[in-house]
Amino acid sequence: MTTATAQIWTGGPDFECREIPLPELAAGEAMIRLTTATICGSDRHTVAGRRSAACPSILGHEGIGVVTETRRDDLTVGQRVVSSVTTTCGTCANCARGLTAKCSSVEKVGHEPLDGPWPLSGTYATHLHLRAGQTVAPVPDSVPDALASTAGCAAATVMAVLEAAGDLTGRRVLVNGIGMLGTIAVIAARARGAAHVIACDPAPRSRELAAGVADETIAPGGTHLVDVAFELSGVAAGVDACLASLDIGGTAVLAGSVTPGPEVVIDPEWVVRGWRTITGVHNYEPRHLIEAVDFLAAEGHRLPTDRIFGGPVTLEQLPAQFAYPDGTLRTVVEIQRVSGESNR
């Protein structure tokens, strides 16, 4: 095989299915034959015009596949793997500080221009070209494709969020925004020893995803003092609510605010006198991808996958999913079936 089939995003709601030449691998690179991708909400924002992105390009940054060719010492042909969103240099000031997600020359899966040096960079394609400096994690057979696909974005981001909060043992935790990240965060917080987990979202359907896992499911409003608040909605009112919920010594981790929005007022005296901490997380570090796979292997069965995942659809049907979304948190794109079995 000398080409990959890819859905090229050409702007607005438009996609075009094309054949893309497979590149000759350089040292430290590999080729993955993708079996499944999942549609992240951020790609829907891109197609809807709410987020800027390179165009034309191959979108998609959640996916799983099998190694078909490699020039990496840490991979072998036939391995089932997921990869990190970012590829980094490892030598710049931010990389040296352990902030590789903010590498000065960072490149990102599903974000690179088709006419650039990394055209085959998104997961809405039959193949993904792995670059040197990109973390890869083997996936055990016990984790289904659709669930494993989320490791590269949603699950790994949640692992970074939990790390930023510190030890959760015995602590009261609020999770605001029960989408894909929020649902994972509720289960992960319980797995990390939180004493009481509150899931907050204005939508009853979203709160239902956390029912039976969280100790409480609530709509916004009211007063609930907690030790840790995770803000995953990206809505200014959600940020306000998370900050207002912090008890003495509390920590708020903001991860949902990744697009411009209204400013939020913070009273510095309230922060100082209350020994409160406010921090942010964007993307994640290599260790978080490994932790995400481990989490999904151990706790993934607790996720309400029947209500999270829609589809599956084929790669050819992908554009229709952007024009007419199915309303689920993640639509499964079944790219290549293995032995005639569904990958969902």
**Biggest beta sheet attributes:** 8 strands, mixed
* Shape by Cα distribution: globular
Write down the CATH class of the largest domain.
Alpha Beta
User: How many DSSP helices?
Assistant: 11
Explain this structure.
The chain contains eleven helices and 16 strands. The model is unreliable at 338-344 (pLDDT under 50). It folds into two domains: 3-152 and 304-334, Medium-chain alcohol dehydrogenases, catalytic domain (Quinone Oxidoreductase, Chain A, domain 1), CATH 3.90.180.10; 158-280, Rossmann fold, CATH 3.40.50.720. With 344 residues, it is an alpha/beta fold. It is globular and about 60 Å long. The chain has helices spanning 41-48, 93-96, 145-149, 154-165, 180-191, 204-210, 236-244, 268-273, 286-299, 305-308, 318-323, and strands at 3-11, 14-21, 30-39, 63-70, 80-87, 107-108, 127-130, 134-138, 172-176, 196-200, 216-218, 226-231, 246-254, 277-280, 309-313, 330-334. Helix 4 crosses helix 5 (180-191) and helix 4 crosses helix 9 (286-299). Helix 5 (180-191) links the parallel strand 9 (172-176) and strand 10 (196-200). The strands form three sheets. Strands 3, 4, 5, 6, 7, 8, 15 and 16 form an eight-stranded mixed β-sheet that branches. Helix content is 25%, strand content 28%. One of its GO terms (molecular function) is alcohol dehydrogenase (NAD+) activity. Belongs to the zinc-containing alcohol dehydrogenase family. Its cofactor is Zn(2+). Its EC number is 1.1.1.1. This is alcohol dehydrogenase.
